[in-house]
Amino acid sequence: METENRPCLTLGGKWLLPLLLITVNAAHKSELGSDTSATLINHSSMLIQRLQDLLQNSNSSDTTLRVRTTSSSEVKVFHTHQLLLTLQSDIFEGLLGNQSVVTLQEPADSAVLFEKFVRYFYCGEISIHLNQAIPLHRLASKYHVSALQKGVTEYMKTHLASESTQGHVVSWYHYALGMGDENLQESCLKFLAWNLSTVISSSEWVTVSNDLMISLLKRSDLVLQSELELFSAVEEWVSKNSPNISIIEKVLRSIRYPMIPPNQLFQIQKQSGILVSYHNFIQDLLFQAFQFHSASPLHFAKYFDVNCSMFIPRNYLSSPWGSQWIINNPARDDRSLSFQTQLGPSNHDSSKKITWNALFSPRWLPVNLRPVYSESVSSGSQSNRLDEGKPRLVVTSAMSGLDFAGVTFQKTVLVGVKRQQGKVFVKHVYTVHQSTDEVVDFLAHADLQKRTSEYLIDNSLHLHIIIKPIYHSLIKAK
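RESULT FIELD:
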């Protein structure tokens, strides 16, 4: 019989304690030779339970943590073990180097979770809810518990679309900004941009900071019903937050007024309280928008630069800009869709329609990999080739032979996931230029064969195809 000593329990990537695992070799001889088998006896769960008992019962404790909050005189006391704390935290290693009793000052939301935080040192796992993410991340960051910090960050990035009563993505963005976590910050900003209509209708919209508002309004990838919806939301935000005059001017001048039809522009000038109060901030932009709608784009481009962001559409969900496409049982076979969009955002072009054709295939193969139906090719080989196919999406204009002078088209495909409260959240956005028919790497890693796929909602693939007409100057503006 042989025995092996192997470390089998880790916390935060460090070996905690060696656990004796017994390898039993049973050997027997036969006429053909000998056979050796091994059995692994794993008691790691029992060891973790005993470590947790150490914390709960204060057995052999050599360190005391006293946790206070600034808003309360209450002190929480934890009898801990220096070895387990210092294995994962160099901060605790420094604090406990010359003393056995340490007093810590924590915000109230962190102090409430400190017992959960300490238990992590003993078992290497932790349960977490949306409202606990920030205080747990703050604790992990403060005490340099890198494994937990990374784990909470990943939790936040994968739970941006999770349902919460008050909303949480805006607060997570502000927290990430303060912590300097650019990765989490960008994930939150992208989610807010791609799901802005949902954010606008939530209670967290009014909690958006000045800087975040300005960052959002600069983006052309905002997903919302229309520019008018964005203007109404900005008006609400200004009335609830009362920012200073310079911020009001900056956000009002970030609205893309040429993307609002002239009848709606007339309406908001008459009915909007914010325009009555601050009309002088954007008077030139409104005048320019009316000029944009009244003249042909080619004539307008002679006098104004149409290559700036003011004349670039965002990702609008309303019908003139594209079409929703719900594909039931997408793994079954090829599907097609035809829809129309307006030639351009200018009122001069809004009545001119372009027909688009979309083709979706769940297993579109290159010619050399497509099945050859003959008796010489086995069914098993055909099946293997089918498995190699990837989802494909092609969007082409039915009027591609026409010359749309001064206009190019950007094709944007939104992929929705995880319906909550009757809403679909956008998780993926694919964008291609008009010269490209196929959407590159479309759902390259999706397994549409599985009903549990994260890309499916009730076994359906939710897409929204947006065609963004973009004007460009054929004649240099004077």
